[in-house]
Each structure stands twice: as structure tokens, then as C-alpha cells.
Amino acid sequence: MLALLHITADYFRSGGVVMVPILLVSFFMWVLIFNRVLFLRQLYSKNISRLQAGEFIQQNQWPDEKYQGANSLLVREFLAHRSLAKNLDDFILDETILRLISPMDKYLAAITVLSAVAPLLGLLGTVVGMMQTFDVITQYGTGNARAMAGGISVALITTQTGLMVSIPGLYMSGWLRRRSQNLKNRIATTGMYLKRYL
Description:
By secondary structure, the protein is mainly α. Helices cover about 80% and strands about 0% of the residues. It is built from 7 helices and no strands. Helix 2 (about 20-45) runs antiparallel to helix 6, helix 2 (about 20-45) packs parallel to helix 7 (about 145-195) and helix 5 (about 85-100) packs antiparallel against helix 7 (about 145-195). The longest helix has about 50 residues, at about 145-195.
């Protein structure tokens, strides 16, 4: 384990100063990804069906606390504001749907931006590494391969790290966007179904 930590530390040290912003981008991106995964997972799990949601609305009864999914949340939010006047309840249900749908895309744009910034930082590291290499060539010529290797190492490692951060981030961004859209469609469909019970 200690050897692995030593190898990892050497890897990041040989990447140079640009590794710090790449690692920060990676850290913040994964914090936001885990936040969204847990949020969407909670809305998917322990859910009630549309039929059950309709029964709860018809009986004006709240679902059990064990149900924490999107449909049960929709029923609870609607029943908390229900007026028992059909026209007004129609608007209240629409407003409840909008209020539940709006936080679904939260942080998704930030995840996409962070995953797109990572390879650009890797490219910056490439430029920095090549500049170091040219400085060495200017001072010592092409005969000092060991001195040139440091700049080339910075160029390659930062590019590789930027891509390693970016590719999973872009994949997770698309996956979370699809899950969010699916959930928004499910809530909207349930809301349309519940209108018959108002």
C-alpha cells in the first residue's frame, strides 16, 4: 500500500504544477456527480405506482413515510397545498410538478463544464512541458536527454490525466442527464394521470 502511494505521489509530482488544478477539477466534479447520483437514486427508489398515487389523491390520504420516490413526493406536495376546488387544484398540481422538476437538472451543467475543462488543463500542461523542454534544448542542446525528459514527462502526464478526468465525467454527465429527463417525464406523466382524480 505504501509503495502504491509512493508511485502515485511520483506520478503527480512529475506532472508539474498543472496537476493541481486538474485534481481540483476532478474532485469537485466527482463531488457533484455523487450528489446527483444519490439525489436521483432516492427519487427512483421506494416509489409508488401511478395507480397508487391516484388512490391516495382520491382518498385524500398521504403515502407512508417508507415511500420516498418521485410519485410519493408529488402526492405529498400536492396534498399539502390542495384546496379541494377542482380548477384551483389543477393549477396547484401543475405548480407542484414544476417545483419538483426544477431541481432535477441542478449541477448537471457544472459537471459538463468541469469535464470539458479537464482536457484543456491537460493541454495547458502539454504547452508548459514543451516550453520546459525547449528551455533545456536552448541551454544544453539536444545531447542531454535526461534534462529533456522532465519537460516531456510534464507534457504527457498532464494530457493523460486531463483525459482520464474528462472521459468518465462526460459519460456520467450524459448518464445523469438521461436519468433526470426520464424522471421528469415520469413525474409529468403521473401528474397528467392524477388530474382525473381532482
